[in-house]
Known about the structure:
Low-confidence stretches: 1-24
Largest sheet: 12 strands, mixed
Shape: elongated
Number of strands: 21
Number of helices: 14
Distance between the termini: 58 Å
Structural class: alpha/beta
Radius of gyration: 28 Å
Mean pLDDT: 91
Amino acid sequence: MKNYFKPALLTAICLLLIGSGKTFAQALKPFEGEKTSWNGFDRYDYFMDTQTFAITPFNALPAEKSGMDDKNTPKGKVRCIVIVPKNAAPGNPVTWRGYYWDHEPQSEVELLKRGFHVVYCNIDPGKEWEAWYAFFTGHGLSKKPAFSGMSRGGINEYAWATVHSDKVSCLYADNPAIRPESFAALNMLVKYDIPVLSIVGTEDFVFPTNTRLIEQALLLMGGRMTMMIKEGTGHHPHSIKDATFIADWVVQNIKPTVRDPLFADTNAFVKTYYYSSENKYQYLKIENTWATVRGPWFTPVYDVYNVKSDTKFGIKTLTIVAPNKPAPGNPWVFRADRILPGDATVEQALLAKGYYIVSPPITGQNPVRKDWDSYYNMLVAKGFSKKPVMMGTGAYAGEAYIWAIYNPDKVSCIYADNAAMRSIMEKKQPLDTLAPLAKAHIPTLHVSGANDPWLTTDTRVAEQKYKALGGSMTVITIPGEGHFPRVPRDPEPIVAFIVKNTKQ
């Protein structure tokens, strides 16, 4: 039969499949050597020469049982192990243990049952790991292994993942430590979209100085990190006895996150993530203890698209947080504030209802109205609603108001929190120019602490003036609160107001 497919066409088809998230796994090549048994699965042992990096089969001694006795390793050699599942899962997935072999192996056993291979190289990352990676991927295993590391194993997986980020799918780190150079390169996990699961004990001695700092850094950079903090446990025991949760997490996170956002062809963008920082409490039955859990596995996760532009003041970023399922008409919030905190309950509730959250940058020394106009025009041209919700906190509320005053036909409603009704975007101030909003019948909602100093001087004055002009303003005060909320806002009345006033 003639081959009617030209090389260029085949290349195009492959690129199309890769772009759609569909890839074909390599054919599995059998592993050489004498097989033994590890937890009911076939095990193959190897020596690697530390000079030539040649890998040759080694017959493990029966006395080692499921473990590995490094006393049997000759000088200049490194022990390596492969465990083979009964039936390989599609894509030939693999999990790579960073250290220590056969210690609390329940997650590897569970993943073997699901068709994963397990691989191990008994040395810290370096040329040996690169040779080992080439060896097992050359046998057809996935080129993006999942990693697991306990204690020093965490050091190893972070060291590899921050340097070889294109060769990692996800990291399970258990009471891990991390080296300074790896910590300084955590941005590579964000750049290559590598999620992290960390299981730690509340009394683990490296938790405060390692895992907590890793979590904070990844949150700030928009990475994904799921936490399980076991109450009343130290550095040991590692893992959890029922490894179903760990295996479920790995299976889900070896998959690429491929979505086609509404605005995909705008400008070059950097994708990160946003999710709630809320803690939850989960019972671990076998351990008879509770764990604090938080992060992407336990809360909805939203894609964040940072659209960059160059100005004479440097690179500025328009931030778009996308709902997982946009509501009809693609409603959105034009949020003057530039930072979306983890306890932003109102925004999280709106994302859950299908609203986009858009935060414009400060592209000069101050917010610039013509820049905001261009962002509005760009998003509307991409299918976003022509009448966004304007939102702002503190002085950002004043900026939201002033843009709405100059664009009353482009606004559905305004929500302000502890508003300071002043603007550096324009010389005219919101309190003196409310008439266009009242004429356009723009409904407004202010939420304020009863002791907020801006309540009397700004919100109450705005309320009086706006109602005198025929406008509608609702004011909700929170007893006992000042300018800084003590607890996250109750989103229900605020979201109800916004949804009511943005119906298409």
